[in-house]
Predict the 3D structure of the following.
Amino acid sequence: MQDPWNPQQYDRFRQERSQPFFDLLALVRPSPRPRVIDLGCGTGDLTAHLHAGLGAERTLGVDSSETMLAGAAAFASPPALTFERADIAALATAWSRAPKPRFDVVLSNAALHWLPSHPELLAQITCALAPRGQLAVQVPANDDHPTHAIAAGLAVEPEFRGALAGYAHRREVLAPERYAEILNTLGYVEQHVRLVVYAHRLASREEVIEWVKGTLLTDYEKRMPPALYARFLERYRKLLFSVLRNERPYFYPFKRILFWALRP
């Protein structure tokens, strides 16, 4: 599959996308010179804030997108702050098979929702935490909004179903209380889990399309030829605008789950 991530498209809403990261970072307790990993670091600018904000000894940012990582080079400062291409699921599996606690902080901002089986995934990631290590995660939880539900419904229509091989993007995000239960089962001694509704005031409903083109719709774009994706996008726009109010500014509420936990 092609790499559909476009840093310029993603960064059109830099301020709105960054706020959950800073809210998540605020949950992490200070510790002396921690070893940190950022799972899903994107273009690396927020990873640089993470590294500086925690006064880290070393920080590693990983992402599966070469396109996004190309921008991270500007923030690298080896050996203290480095970036590499890696698949989060593969890393987590490796950690679970050969437990070697290496990190004092494992942070993931808007990345784990792309991966399935969160109970198993969080158990694997926990293997990479040192004693008294901290886990901090933010995942979008907006699948019930028309922006997400319409895309999933459109994917099963005959025109697109064949190219997508039956695929429809449905995230594996769980209820906040379920994450609390998982963290307790995994033995974390302290935790904080919360659902936050971020209030985005966009210039118009047209900007909602630009928002999802930078994230959600990339999952469909990479699976379709360009001409078919263009028809998908046209159909998506028509269906979405049939239910979104035509007002300026447009109020776009976006739910996210943030959780933090401390190992014994």
In short: Residues 91 and 251 are 38 Å apart (CA to CA).
